[in-house]
């Protein structure tokens, strides 16, 4: 019956997508369909129920089944694209069943809290679970040092705008860096200094000069699986950062947004290197759970707790209790750990695929920061071709890429980079997409008429 039902579903779905059955049109009755497809009434009922779960049709009591509005069909009608640009998880990677169970359980367990304004710092029970999670990453903190934010973006915005105990005012950023941090600083008109980060790290002498002479309030860094480069600091570099911060009274905002994807069990955060008095350790949950939950957590030094509590309360009174409850249940039930391991395996496999195919298909000098494993991002360096035209041609061929320009300060020298994300690409997409990118890069190089030979691996 299953094969018969699947063929019926495919036939009806195809007619809807092709427009042979119009939006709002009533589908043939269950009895008529059973005669048409020569099957039982129960098979048609089951097929209609499956199509209803896909939001292709809906039922009206005593009236039958109807096709949904055209707007809901657009994703099915549109041509499939290869997406190297997105940074949000594929909805199909999240178990909707698990999420609904957690929502329902959160409504039951936290019903009383939903009708109050809880602690701006976050639910105590969730902070206790975050302490356990952070301990797994060698970040040892107490529940009093944990803050729950409405997404990492809120945390960055508050930290950028509040005064720090060191009395300094300037902010140091890696270049390139996460665009959301740049937006927060621009909106608040903060004084920002950039320091270049390459696949080989950074100029440590320059970093120390900044710490010593430029009144740096804090240094914002993504030490693990950098966005957009995808690279990570070594253990020695992390320890050196912690020591410099201590020596020059500079705080570090450590954005460890992909800690769950780490494949090296010995890769500890900066906070683990005697950095508890100077390092704000920030974790997002958007890449493993649903970004729409808007949740992040931070372990902060004791010196920041009173002021950050005040700023957090003034921003939103408290983070959504329902979202916090869902995360707590995810953590306590083991769902989070299970899902994180699945995502780590999936993304690691895709990054390895990206590395191998890039080395095979792309020019050698374009492999700017192809990682060996882990993370979500890497960067391709372009020659002096028309980047906007190249991106336009790729878009026309169904390949979405993202220029890294907006991930630089406006006055900072920009490298000609494309950020490559594997979060929404499978193996077939990666191979097909990189093949198209290689073709368009070669075409752009020929058009430019460069005398430099095109160097292929």
TrEMBL record:
Its cofactor is pyridoxal 5'-phosphate. Residues 2-70 form the HTH gntR-type domain. The keyword Transcription regulation applies. One of its GO terms (molecular function) is pyridoxal phosphate binding. Keywords: Aminotransferase, DNA-binding, Pyridoxal phosphate, Transcription, Transcription regulation, Transferase. The keyword Phosphoprotein does not apply. SUPFAM superfamilies: PLP-dependent transferases, Winged helix' DNA-binding domain. SMART domains: HTH_GNTR (SM00345). In the C-terminal section; belongs to the class-I pyridoxal-phosphate-dependent aminotransferase family. PANTHER family: HTH-TYPE TRANSCRIPTIONAL REGULATORY PROTEIN GABR (PTHR46577), TRANSCRIPTIONAL REGULATORY PROTEIN (PTHR46577:SF2). This is PLP-dependent aminotransferase family protein.
């Amino acid at each position: 019956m299953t094969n018969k039902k699947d063929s019926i579903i495919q036939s009806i779905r195809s007619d809807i997508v092709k427009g042979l059955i119009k939006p709002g049109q009533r589908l043939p009755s269950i009895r008529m369909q059973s005669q048409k497809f020569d099957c039982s009434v129960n098979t048609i009922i089951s097929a209609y129920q499956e199509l209803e779960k896909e939001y292709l049709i809906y039922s009206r009591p005593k009236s039958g089944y109807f096709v949904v509005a055209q707007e809901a069909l657009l994703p099915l009608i549109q041509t499939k694209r290869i997406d190297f640009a997105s940074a949000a998880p594929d909805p199909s990677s999240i178990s909707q069943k698990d999420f609904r169970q957690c929502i329902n359980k959160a409504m039951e367990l936290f019903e009383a809290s939903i009708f109050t304004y809880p602690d701006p710092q976050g639910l105590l029970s969730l902070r206790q679970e975050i302490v356990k999670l952070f301990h797994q990453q060698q970040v040892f903190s107490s529940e009093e040092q944990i803050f729950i934010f409405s997404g990492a973006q809120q945390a960055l915005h508050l930290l950028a705008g509040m005064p720090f105990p060191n009395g300094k005012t300037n902010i140091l950023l890696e270049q390139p860096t996460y665009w959301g941090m740049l937006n927060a600083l621009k909106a608040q008109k903060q004084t920002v200094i950039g320091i270049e980060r390459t696949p080989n790290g950074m100029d440590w002498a320059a970093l120390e000069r900044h710490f010593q002479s430029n009144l740096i309030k804090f240094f914002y860094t993504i030490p693990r699986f950098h966005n957009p480069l995808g690279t990570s600091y070594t253990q020695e570099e992390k320890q050196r950062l912690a020591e410099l911060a201590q020596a020059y009274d500079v705080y570090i905002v450590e954005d460890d947004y992909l800690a769950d994807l780490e494949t090296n069990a010995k890769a500890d955060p900066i906070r683990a290197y005697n950095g508890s008095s100077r390092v704000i350790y920030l974790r997002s949950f958007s890449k493993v759970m649903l970004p729409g939950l808007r949740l992040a957590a931070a372990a902060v030094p004791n010196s920041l707790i009173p002021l950050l509590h005040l700023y957090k309360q003034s921003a939103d009174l408290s983070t959504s209790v329902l979202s916090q409850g869902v995360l707590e249940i995810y953590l306590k039930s083991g769902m989070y750990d299970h899902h994180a391991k699945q995502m780590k395996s999936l993304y690691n496999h895709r990054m390895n695929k990206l590395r191998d195919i890039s080395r095979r298909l792309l020019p050698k000098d374009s492999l700017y920061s192809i990682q060996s494993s882990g993370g979500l991002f890497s960067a391709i360096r372009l020659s002096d071709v028309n980047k906007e035209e190249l991106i336009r041609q790729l878009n026309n061929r169904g390949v979405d890429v993202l220029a890294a320009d907006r991930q630089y300060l406006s006055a900072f020298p920009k490298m000609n980079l494309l950020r490559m994300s594997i979060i929404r690409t499978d193996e077939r997409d990666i191979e097909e997409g990189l093949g198209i990118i290689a073709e368009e890069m070669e075409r752009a190089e020929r058009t430019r008429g460069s005398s430099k030979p095109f160097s292929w691996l």
